[in-house]
Q: What sequence folds into this?
């Protein structure tokens, strides 16, 4: 299983519209990627950092778990332009993206 992680930096002038992000963007992400092996979506809303009272480094961290990298790549090749163009509808920052393999430890 692989994970696509998107990190949206939190700055003094950054904005993030959670309502649009969840009701429109993530809804469309499911429509695109569910048939291609999207297994799970986790959304993390930044609350703080390791030091009490300090702001979070990221407003949002999104984790998209896929059965295979190929499933993600197929969907992104087909709909990547829409995915990237939609970013300005919910934030004014560009996300950092990391692709990772998942390792479950018990």
A:
């Amino acid at each position: 299983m692989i994970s696509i992680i998107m990190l949206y930096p939190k700055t003094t002038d950054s904005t993030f519209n959670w309502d649009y992000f969840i009701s429109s963007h993530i809804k469309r992400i499911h429509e695109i990627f569910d048939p291609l092996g999207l297994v799970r979506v986790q959304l993390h809303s930044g609350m703080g950092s390791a030091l009490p009272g300090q702001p979070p480094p990221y407003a949002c961290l999104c984790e998209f778990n896929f059965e295979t990298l190929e499933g993600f790549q197929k969907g992104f090749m087909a709909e990547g332009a829409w995915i990237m163009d939609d970013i300005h509808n919910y934030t004014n920052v560009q996300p950092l993206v990391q692709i990772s393999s998942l390792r479950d430890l018990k």
Summary: The chain has a mean pLDDT of 96.
